[in-house]
């Protein structure tokens, strides 16, 4: 597969990973920069510290997702393109995987009771979907690059 056709083959994956990177980078700020988190007077300063850490982590992972999705180094071979896609997928999915696993810690809830009616539980449904889409983007890129897994030059 030529470099141009390989690059075209991964374009749908790159577009999806770019959107997921945007969701990781901006999602925490859009969801938390309000009375439920950052401006919640009932939260202790240390709880707000960890919320800030989480928002910054999402921003960093989103930026890394974009970098590995669109970088032009390591793209002369199918295995190089797949390596870039895999790394971008890992960066994209890490934020959502940690959000899904957060409910497993003692005393956690998807949302505080006072905001459940007005805000729902968006992480409960959204994070697994975004995690799945991250890996679907990789799977699509892998499939298109390897002609359905029939030919791969690793």
Automatic annotation (TrEMBL):
Keywords: Signal. It comes from the Eukaryota. InterPro entries: DUF6640 (IPR046580). This is Uncharacterized protein. Residues 1-25 form the signal peptide. Pfam families: DUF6640 (PF20345).
């Amino acid at each position: 597969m030529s470099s141009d056709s390989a690059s075209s083959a991964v374009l749908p994956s790159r577009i999806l990973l770019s959107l997921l990177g945007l969701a990781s980078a901006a999602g925490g700020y859009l969801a938390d920069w309000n009375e439920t988190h950052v401006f919640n007077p009932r939260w202790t300063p240390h709880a707000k510290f960890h919320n800030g850490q989480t928002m910054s982590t999402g921003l960093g992972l989103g930026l890394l997702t974009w970098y590995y999705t669109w970088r032009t180094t390591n793209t002369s071979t199918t295995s190089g393109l797949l390596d870039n896609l895999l790394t971008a997928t890992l960066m994209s999915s890490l934020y959502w995987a940690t959000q899904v696993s957060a409910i497993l810690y003692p005393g956690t809830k998807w949302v505080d009771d006072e905001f459940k009616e007005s805000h729902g539980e968006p992480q409960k449904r959204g994070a697994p979907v975004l995690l799945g889409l991250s890996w679907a983007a990789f799977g699509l890129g892998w499939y298109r690059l390897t002609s359905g897994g029939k030919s791969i030059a690793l």
